[in-house]
Design brief:
With about 210 residues, the chain is mainly alpha-helical. Helices cover about 65% and strands about 0% of the residues. The longest helix has 23 residues. Helix 4 runs antiparallel to helix 5 and helix 10 runs antiparallel to helix 11.
C-alpha cells in the first residue's frame, strides 16, 4: 500500500486554494494509512508516516494533525509484527521513563514513548503496553537477551499493577497482558521462567475469581 503524503494534497490541487479545510489531511486519514502499512509489515514506512505527522503538527500546531496514542501504538505493533528493527530493541525497564526520570535507551518502544510524550502529551495505555510486551517476546534470540526481555516484561506488568491500584484505569492488566508476558517467559525456556509463568497464570485466573 502506498504511504499517504502530507505534501501532495496540500500543493497538487487548485481546489486547495478554494477550500483548504476539505483537503487538509486529518488524523483519521493518517491513522488509516498507518494501519494499512502495519498489516504489510512495513514498519519503517509506518514510522516514517508518523514522523510526517509529528513534523506537520510541530510546524503548524494544527490539532487535526496531532498524533495520539493510537498512532504510536499502531507503529509499535507494526514493528512487533514485521520483525523489522528488532536489532534496535534493547530491553530496559519502563519505570524510569514513565515516572519522569532520565532513563535512556535506544530501543523502538522507548523511542516511540519519548515521542508520544513530546508530541501527543499522552501517557501509555493498555494497548501500547500490551504491544510493547509482545515486541519483547520477539526482541532477541540470545539467552541473555531473552532473560532481559523477561525482566522488562515484569517491570511493565509491575508498573501497570501499581498504576491501576493508584486509580489509572487506562493501564489495567488484562488477559492480553498476561498472555503476552507468559509468551516472553516461554522464550526463556528455563525452570525459573516456567515457575514465573505458572504464577502469572494463577494471577490471570484470579482476575475472574
Amino acid at each position: 500500500a502506498s504511504v499517504p503524503s502530507l505534501s501532495l494534497p496540500l500543493h497538487s490541487s487548485n481546489a486547495y486554494n478554494n477550500n483548504r479545510q476539505q483537503l487538509r489531511p486529518t488524523i483519521p486519514l493518517q491513522k488509516s494509512g498507518t494501519a494499512d502499512v502495519s498489516t504489510c509489515s512495513a514498519a519503517a514506512k509506518a514510522d516514517a508516516l508518523l514522523r510526517e505527522m509529528e513534523q506537520a503538527y510541530e510546524r503548524t500546531g494544527a490539532a487535526n494533525l496531532r498524533p495520539d496514542v493510537v498512532a504510536y501504538t499502531s507503529v509499535l505493533d507494526a514493528f512487533a509484527k514485521s520483525g523489522q528493527g528488532l536489532s534496535l530493541q534493547q530491553p530496559t525497564t519502563i519505570n524510569g521513563k514513565v515516572n519522569g526520570n532520565n532513563a535512556k535507551s535506544g530501543n523502538v518502544a522507548m523511542d516511540l514513548l519519548d515521542r508520544m510524550q513530546k508530541y501527543a502529551d499522552e501517557r501509555p495505555n493498555a494497548a501500547f503496553l500490551n504491544t510493547w510486551i509482545h515486541l519483547l517476546s520477539k526482541s532477541t534470540t540470545t539467552t541473555t537477551g531473552k532473560e532481559a526481555s523477561a525482566v522488562a516484561a515484569k517491570e511493565i506488568l509491575g508498573y501497570r499493577r501499581s498504576e491501576y491500584k493508584a486509580g489509572n484505569e487506562l493501564v489495567r492488566p488484562c488477559k492480553i497482558t498476561y498472555t503476552a508476558a507468559i509468551s516472553v517467559l516461554a522464550q526463556v525456556g528455563t525452570v525459573a521462567a516456567a515457575e514465573r509463568a505458572e504464577i502469572l497464570l494463577k494471577e490471570l485466573e484470579g482476575l475472574w475469581s
